[in-house]
């Protein structure tokens, strides 16, 4: 074998063809070295070779397979759970678009827009009215999330505008005060009512909070 040739001791260099004789049996290893060689050879064997050599079952290989199966099952369960969350979010987003956006149609996300001040107010009031009427109008069960601060309303209508601003069309210049002012109007949902539809029919003015009708946008700022 090639390995045995490499392990054969060489006493001199040069061409000595007539003196060369097979010396394969002259090289002997110590028992410790032979045991170490066998251990190394067994260590680098594949599980199948180890099973053929000593007949031991590949417990480590079986353990690795079990670990792979457990991790795979965990990934599948996580993917299914995440898919359910994503589906729930997408379905609720579509539902809220139909509830709060006036004249909304599926597939009109890129074209749904308003162009006049009247349309802006109509869309805002439409969204607020449907938000306040959620318990009595929606098929699904939705509840209001009340803030931790007792003085804060459940729904806030806010607008931000510059304190002062003037446009000179002749020079095409803008004179704007960089200070930004924020104004908010709180809208509270109605209290829990046993029969909301009948209550709204008998008391249309008391059923919902109409204070948001006084909300005025400063388009010029």
Automatic annotation (TrEMBL):
Keywords, alphabetical: Membrane, Transmembrane, Transmembrane helix
Molecular function terms from GO: NAADP-sensitive calcium-release channel activity
InterPro entries assigned to the protein according to its UniProt record, in alphabetical order: MCLN_ECD, Mucolipin
All copies of domain Mucolipin extracytosolic, residue ranges: 85-221
GO cellular component: lysosomal membrane; plasma membrane
Transmembrane segments: 61-80
Domain of life of the source: Eukaryota
PANTHER family reported in the protein's UniProt record: MUCOLIPIN (PTHR12127), MUCOLIPIN-1 (PTHR12127:SF6)
Official protein name in the record: Mucolipin extracytosolic domain-containing protein
